[in-house]
Amino acid sequence: MSNATPPRAPQPPESRVEPLGASAPLAELSPAYFGMVMATGIVSIAAQLLDHPTLARALFALNLVAYTVLWALNALRALRYRAHFLGDLVDHLRGPGFFTSVAATSIVGSQFLILAKNSRAAVALWCVAVVLWVGLTYTVFTGLTIKRNKPSLDQGISGAWLLAVVATQSIAALSALLAAHIGQPVKLELNFLALSMWLWGGMLYIWMMSLIFYRYTFFPLEPGDLSPPYWINMGAMAISTLAGSLLILNSPDAPFLLSLLPFLKGFTVFYWATGTWWIPMLLVLALWRHVYRRFPLRYDPLYWGAVFPLGMYAASTDRLIEAMGIGFLSFVPRAFFSIALIAWSAAFVGLAVELLRGSRPRSGG
């Protein structure tokens, strides 16, 4: 008989990387953290639209730093913690968070166009956003479709799924903006792409919201289930309103948009009305969560997903007023811009406190 010990089973890849001590936050970095760039970018754009140029440019500068840092952190995470990164791509709850990178890229591109008048940077970011959208759409949804072990509907779906809609509509909005700033031969093509993405985003919202509303009404809902990305229920409609308004404004330069003008106007108001309906509902649910059920209110990176819809609602309503000539709504963008700015400030303070806590030396034990 041999006294040789049996060979040790191979360790999973993560265990061969340095222990998860100080690097653990990087391993668990939320794919949805680009929501910070989305929120900061749209508050910056809303500030510019509502005549606060100094604030808009300050937020633009901050957003460029945040966008660069987040790409560096995500690249480092993909290299050092590949299993975590790839696992998140096909995770029902975390996978849709990757679509924040698409929306963030499109919004930074829009900032370059609106604030800096830099169409070259905007085009470059538009290209990046399109590549990301194609790659993530057919990776995330294929992975979720073919994986063997799947959660039940109530455990596997959340408002974060609507980030795929936001990503789609962000490309529609940036394409429409570029079409308004760039001449032929690509003006018509960009407008057609914007129209196509706008229509697909609306269809995707109907599919996903049907499942989310079914989960709302036919499964038990605990305070912990009502995470901040549920505000994307409204945010997805707000950015759809923005893209539709930009298409209406572009219609004189594109004959096919001009022929669809009644349809464009009707559906844009439909999106705005749907987003508006969600606001009281989400406020009531937030009160139920934090006041009635006393769920603690503390910083979470997902809260950027609640700031973004508020800023987007302000910006989209401002563009809707211009596109439809409905000046009686002029009080809405300024009111929601103030609310969005307060929410952004609270999230930013929460992030700063979290970073300060993480930088304090831990007492050894």
Q: From the coordinates shown, what is the CATH architecture?
A: Alpha/alpha barrel
Poorly predicted tracts of residues: 1-23, 361-365
Total number of strands: 0
Label the overall shape: globular
What radius of gyration results from the CA coordinates?
Answer: 22 Å
The CATH class designation is Mainly Alpha
As a percent range, the share of helical residues equals over 70%
CATH topology: Glycosyltransferase
N-C termini distance: 45 Å
Total DSSP helices: 14
Q: What count of structural domains?
A: 1
Any idea what the CATH superfamily is called? Voltage-dependent anion channel
Helix-strand makeup class: mainly alpha
The largest β sheet comes out as: none
**How much is the average pLDDT?**
89
Percentage beta strand: under 5%
- Order of helical and strand elements: HHHHHHHHHHHHHH
